[in-house]
Write a structure and sequence with these properties.
236 residues; 7 helices; binds nicotinamide-adenine-dinucleotide; 14% strand
Length: 236
Amino acid sequence: MRLEGKVAVITGAASGFGRAAARRFVGEGAKVILGDIQEVEGKAVASELGDNAVFLKCNVTSEEDVAALVDAAVSNFGALDVMYNNAGVVGAVGPIAQTPLEEWQRTLDIHLNGSFLGCKHAARVMMSQASGSIINMASTAGLLGGQGPHAYATCKHGMIGLTKSLAREIGPRGITVNAVAPGFVPTDLTNDLIEDMQDTIIEMTSMRRLGTPEDVAHLTTFLASDQSSFITGQVI
Ligand code: NAD
């Protein structure tokens, strides 16, 4: 098992990529703290995973909530080996001239401030351990224009910037920081969108099929494992 004895925190763990990662991480021997604003769904995932999982209601825009999520890893399971900053929303959509500032700010708050807080509090614990893996959820929208709405694309570009910058600071302390950048994958976030574009999306992929949350969990499991300890500051 690739994650035997590891302790991970996953945000946005009640659904989609976060839920798939929680299942995979526990299947690989990890213990997980799951955070999400969706309490009923989050608790259901934790109860499915048994004693190896604890759910805490967490809004990633709240520093108090994110700090508590990280501290729960230490108090419940004795360490924090993996921080997966995954929570996200589509956020503000539409032409820039019609984008309300509040919607723009809310999108940045969830993605950018949420990841910043996850990195900040994970680093607090991981630096004292001199080990750990931080994984930020980017997107192809963080690499190219036209892959998502303006605010979403801005956030994902920013999360890649944070990943590269932070890797330089804490790499020498034994902590890796990487980002994953999936394309369109059917989840609650994208189901409506993908329905209309499915053939085009499949045509754009090398494997000529839609990706799955389990594919992404495979990648994050690798980044969470000791096998990736030489990879940092990368977008995968
Ligand atoms: P999803 O909607 O299934 O899951 C997102 C989860 O984040 C939900 O459970 C939601 O409740 C939670 N969340 C939202 N706001 C939150 C907040 N403020 N605090 C805590 N939790 C919050 O969608 P998903 O596709 O699994 O998305 C997960 C991440 O992957 C997001 O960051 C998204 O931008 C990114 N992503 C998705 C795709 C895709 O095609 N599905 C592609 C690239 C990147």
